[in-house]
């Protein structure tokens, strides 16, 4: 079987070498496509691939139509909204993610962002401390629980919302459960967002929710850009000059936000959550192992399409 690693934003050289070793040791063929400038390059490269490892690369219906031999796609990371799941299912292609492999990297970034904004982006002005503040965690999965553990070590109080967990499960993770999103936002000095971009969540965080936050609160988004209603965010920051927003997924209106609100807003130049050497390696190797296991045993444990 031919395993193609296709990444516009490449893995580290060490990660690629590790993926190659796993693939070749299992008796498969290995190929790599990196920093490709056009989607057409991916369409061409997948023509004879049996398996595909990607990061944030877009696996569209066009890609799947061109990939006549393709049997499995593994997204190295937790999110998989860059893959057309319906088209993959129609083409009988298994799609997997690698949950948990990037979680610590994202969690550390979320904590760093809270401190960064508390200290006025490290400008000389007097800032604040996170100790004693209440953190609301929106989605208490792999990343959310790690954020909570690190925040608790810093002396923060935790509340969390996750419709897929029982109150007892949230409490076991060290947080007090809340039962609706309005309660979460109304009672948190910081809200850390970890929800996926789904039809029900896209633009779900907007003016009404943001303006429910207490005075001086900060919204931290290391999830997906699409979950924020950017026009609503703009209005909320206009009407509430005490609020702040920080993200590693740059808003479309970032220049306007930054010009208007200065140090109250910050976005990293590109998505930074998984940009650590450790996460890079973990996710890439996990993707390779899942493909090898799938071909050997048919294991579909991490399949995200049906």
**Beta strands, count:** 12
Helix proportion: 25-40%
Q: How would the global form be characterised? A: elongated
Overall pLDDT confidence? 96
Major sheet summary line? 7 strands, parallel
Number of helices: 12
Low-confidence stretches: none
CATH superfamily label of the largest domain: NAD(P)-binding Rossmann-like Domain
Strand order of the largest sheet: 8-7-6-9-10-11-12
Tally of domains:
2
Report the order of strands and helices: EHEHEHEHEHEHEHEHEHEHEHEH
Radius of gyration: 20 Å
What structural class do you assign from the helix and strand content?
alpha/beta
Walk me through what this model shows.
The structure is a single chain. This protein is α/β, with parallel strands linked by helices and 306 residues long. The chain has two domains: 2-101 and 275-297, NAD(P)-binding Rossmann-like Domain (Rossmann fold, 3-Layer(aba) Sandwich); 104-267, Rossmann fold, CATH 3.40.50.720. The chain has twelve helices and twelve strands. Helix 11 links the parallel strand 11 (244-247) and strand 12. Helix 1 packs parallel to helix 12 (277-297) and helix 5 (103-118) packs across helix 6.
